[in-house]
Amino acid sequence: MNAPASAPHAVVNVTPEVVRVVERSQPSSGFGNFRGPGPARIRMGVGDTVTVTIFEASPGGLFIPLESTNSAGNFVNLPDQKVDSAGNISVPYAGSIHAAGEEPAAVQRVIEQRLASRAIEPQAVVAVKSQTSSEVSVLGDVNAPSKFSVNADGERILDVIAKAGGPKQPGYETYVTLQRGSKKATIYFQKLVREPSNNIYVLPNDTVYVYREPHAFTAFGASGENGRFDFADETINLSDALGKAGGLLDNRANPGAVMVYRIEDRKTAAKLGVPVEKFEGDHIPVIYQFNLRDPGGFFLASSFPIHNKDVIYIGNAAIVKFMKFIDVVGATTSAAAAGRVATN
Fold it and tell me: DSSP assignment, residue 157?
């Protein structure tokens, strides 16, 4: 049976230039596809509660009796009402008026036009008392998940997260997903805070989902401890990671065979000098190889950023393989000797 072919990958010996490329090629994400010119214009919708006030120039008109002595002004407040399922409100003598999808000023003009021939110089004021059609949902790992009405002057993503009590977990372990209609994007919370351009205005019916995903790497081979290790910070470098994993074992590790396994995007791989034409798809497995026998290698390790889900492998020294061979030979010799003694 033929041995399976190894998975395609590229090996990159780490140099100062490689470190510079990796530092400039941090994983990117953001809300660029959602950016708009500014806050949305808030319009009325089905289920919103509105208040209508009608003013007349003098008593004796349609709404204000002639004997009225209202010193506060010639006006009448209509009972609060909700925009019905057809998107309409009702105003006496003006009939049913479509309000859903309209701004209050537009509805005011319609009321005034319909009452113009019946009331004395009518003026209308339409106010939204409570709004359920222009809400944003904030869910997930926040202290007070809820739905919030969007203010007319606009609210940004960090504003609504703050309204929901803020993230429960540290920012360096938190991600934020924005869902708007059929579009969805996710951003690292720290990046959202650092880059104001990503702190975009929310729109009615947006959903903001906050969740925790600790950044971690895995260490194998001749390290003091093998396993999965959380960053416990926003960023760490290879030196930090090796320290978390217990460093290199003096009697086993090969300092010239310290490797970082990572999936890089095609653009970054090309900048690293990888022959990308030999690979299919946009993601290319890359093995970064460090030589810590060279004192300069420690400076490179201190500058090389570790990414979430990286795998670090420390190879065994040649003497370890030799000692394993001696152990096997010794065990075999001992077994043979024992067999001869038993035969005799």
Answer: H
**Cα distance between residue 106 and residue 164, in whole Å:** 33
User: CB atoms < 10 A from the CB of 90, how many?
Assistant: 12
How many CB atoms within 10 Å of residue 156?
16
d(CA 290, CA 293): 9
DSSP label at residue 217: E
Q: Which two tokens stand for residue 5?
A: 């072919």
* Amino acid residing at 56: E
How many other CB atoms sit within 10 Å of the CB of residue 234?
15
pTM over 0.90: no
Question: Residue 150 has what pLDDT?
Answer: 85
CA neighbor of 164 nearest in space, from 191, 201, 139: 139
Closest of 48, 151, 49, 43 to residue 102, by C-alpha: 43
Q: Are 58 and 337 in contact (CB under 8 A)?
A: no
Mean pLDDT, all residues of the chain: 86
Contacts of 309 (CB under 8 A, 6+ apart): 216, 217, 218
The single-letter DSSP state of residue 3 is P
Q: How confident is the model at residue 37 (pLDDT cuts 50, 70, 90)?
A: low
* CB within 8 Å of 209: residues ≥ 6 apart: 139, 140, 176, 177, 178, 179
**Residue with the two structure tokens 């299919």:** 280
Please tell me the distance from the alpha carbon of residue 50 to that of residue 137, in angstroms, as a whole number.
22
Residue showing tokens 């086993």: 252
Model confidence at 326: pLDDT above 60? no
How far, in Å, are 45, 107, 344 from residue 85 at the CA level?
Answer: 9, 17, 102
For residues 193 and 29, give the distance between their C-alpha atoms in angstroms, rounded to a whole number.
13
Rounded distance between C-alpha atoms, residue 34 and residue 155, angstroms: 14
Read off the DSSP letter of residue 197: G
Per-residue b or e along 103-119, where b marks 16 or more CB atoms closer than 10 Å to that residue's CB: ebeebbebbbebbeeeb
* Length of the chain in terms of residues written: 344
> Tens of pLDDT along 129-187?
888 888 899 999 999 999 988 887 888 999 999 999 999 999 989 999 999 989 999 99
